[in-house]
Design goal:
There is one protein chain. By secondary structure, the chain is mostly helical. About 75% of the residues lie in helices and about 0% in strands. Helix 1 packs parallel to helix 8, helix 2 crosses helix 5 and helix 5 runs antiparallel to helix 6. The protein starts with 9 loop residues before the first helix and ends with a helix. Keywords: Cell membrane, Membrane, Transmembrane, Transmembrane helix.
Length: about 200
């Protein structure tokens, strides 16, 4: 196996974009009866994307050249980043640029962890509302709004980190690269085809 180069590859970038689009689509079609089918489609795409991301976390170190960060790694990063500024007795240092940046990085990582945990919950409640009992709708809406709050936290800390670092921190996730192994490119193409095919078939049902 080749040496690990990064924790981000083109598949992770594509999945990140799909999750963003699916969340925005699901959130803004949630209250429309006419777009209910579209809303459900976006929800299923969210679940498909997060499931693929979890599988790739375990699979990629074996067949690719990346080792993606998982929930355990990101939780540790979040805890350590937030804990460090509070380890100083001087309250002035807590409001220093370095401390604010560490707290912001910690919250950024924490938002990713909770978003990953929340996606299956929101989708499951949506599925339950659709197929079992409508009484789950309020609970589904609550967790969807909590999801939105986490996304806002995620974007806010990304912007703050970018300002403090004087460069856009999200560029590494959005910048496409073709330096990954062929298997990674193949998996990326496969995911895009499957999402596209699922969307086409589901909307025609």
């Amino acid at each position: 196996m080749s040496k690990t180069l990064s924790h981000i590859d083109i598949l992770i970038r594509i999945l990140h974009i799909i999750i963003m689009v699916a969340f925005v689509g699901a959130y803004f079609t949630g209250d429309s009866e006419d777009l209910h089918q579209v809303h459900m489609m976006f929800g299923y795409i969210l679940l498909m994307s997060i499931t693929t991301r979890v599988i790739w976390h375990f699979l990629s170190p074996r067949i690719s050249n990346t080792a993606p960060f998982g929930i355990k790694k990101r939780s540790s990063m979040a805890f350590n980043a937030i804990k460090k500024p509070f380890s100083h007795a001087n309250s002035v240092s807590l409001f220093s640029k370095n401390s604010i940046q560490l707290i912001s990085i910690g919250l950024f990582q924490a938002s990713i962890v909770f978003i990953f945990i929340l996606i299956p919950v929101v989708v499951a409640l949506g599925y339950g509302t659709e197929h079992f009992t409508y009484s789950l709708r309020d609970l589904h809406s609550f967790f969807a709004n909590l999801f939105l709050a986490l996304v806002i936290l995620h974007l806010s800390t990304l912007i703050l980190n970018s300002i403090l670092a004087k460069r856009f921190q999200g560029w590494t996730m959005l910048k496409m690269t073709w330096e990954d192994k062929k298997i990674t490119k193949f998996m990326t193409l496969l995911v895009l085809v499957l999402v596209g095919a699922f969307s086409f078939v589901y909307l025609r049902m």
